[in-house]
Amino acid sequence: MSDKDILAAPPEQHLHDLRAVYDMGNLHLDPTATAGNQSWSVVRLNPDPYSGSETLVGAALDAKTGQLINAATGKPAADSSFSSGMIEEGSWVLVTRIGVPRGKQRGRYKWTKPLEYEKRRLDPEDIYRPFVKGGTVLCKHNPEVEGATQFDAVSLLPTGWEAHVSPAFDALKKNKVLSRQPASAVDKMSLKALMANANAITSTIAFRSLSESGNLDSKTVQQTLSKATGYHRAVLMYIALVHAPAAGPSTIEPALTQAVQGTSGPADNRSAALAFTAVALFHPNLPQSRTLSVNLLNAMRSGSAPSVAGQKTASVARQKADPYLEELLKTAQIL
């Protein structure tokens, strides 16, 4: 895994990447599970230009009068009698299908999704919709059906991660410990070995399992982050903050602070800022992790790292202004 993909990302891609970090950090795969005729697949989405447009569900315009009518009855109707929706429409191309290589290789998608104006919490779907903006997704896919039921369990992949999907499913089938919480010392040793796997998805799942079960200390986190790069590093940092045990992120705070202090270039800055911004945006229910993330983002902005347990820490290496990083800080409302 290299930094090339994250360095190639233009500033406007930061919303795509925030969604991808969230999705990979919360990815749950069961290679044995089946849901009807849906197979785990990697699909590239190419939205139509008008995908994402708002519409009134069930409404139409009378061609003669220009009056708004009910599409089902043809009778005049007021705007208030319809609910709002978002059109999601475009084409898809198959990249990989797990276990079932045959079948349709390309097709269309089309539906209208209800809009929820009264929602109080920001979801990843609110900042980046793959069926509106495009991208490569891992999902359960049945190309034989129409509408939104064609896709299930949709996760946006970081750029370049499509190559990791098939090997990750092979690893899940071979290593059952990846699909359960570690119950023994042998399980923990196996997960730590898998955490060092070159496959980003396999490594991520092992890291999350160890984090959730409280089997990651600050030293192990620091060593793991020092070897990870690009989007992989971002996802691991996100997991360390969000999937920490009940005690919160205090045990791994030194490792994350050290990761910020030790940033050696734009790729490290981008991966750290992606992780911290994703936590700050999507997890207001985790106040300790969110506060730590905002503090670390502020440290990156100012060039001075926060102290750990009252200790004085070194300054963060200042880099030339990076438009991608600036967009992340704006999104996190740091600037």
Structure, explained:
With 335 residues, this protein is α+β, with helices and mostly antiparallel strands. It has 2 domains: 4-23 and 162-331, no CATH class; 29-57 and 71-161, no CATH class. Helices cover 40% and strands 16% of the residues. The protein contains 13 helices and 8 strands. Strands 1, 2, 5, 6, 7 and 8 form a 6-stranded antiparallel β-sheet that branches. It has a two-stranded antiparallel sheet with strand order 3-4. The chain is globular, with a radius of gyration of 22 Å. The two termini are 31 Å apart.
Offer a concise description of the structure.
By secondary structure, the chain is of the alpha+beta class. It is about 40% helix and about 15% strand.
Task: Write the SSE topology.
Blueprint: H1 4-8, H2 14-25, E1 39-47, E2 54-56, E3 59-61, E4 68-70, E5 84-97, E6 106-114, H3 124-127, H4 130-133, E7 135-141, E8 151-156, H5 165-174, H6 185-195, H7 200-212, H8 218-227, H9 230-242, H10 253-261, H11 266-282, H12 287-302, H13 323-331
Helix pairs in contact: 2-9, 2-11, 6-7, 7-9, 8-10, 9-11, 10-12, 11-12, 11-13
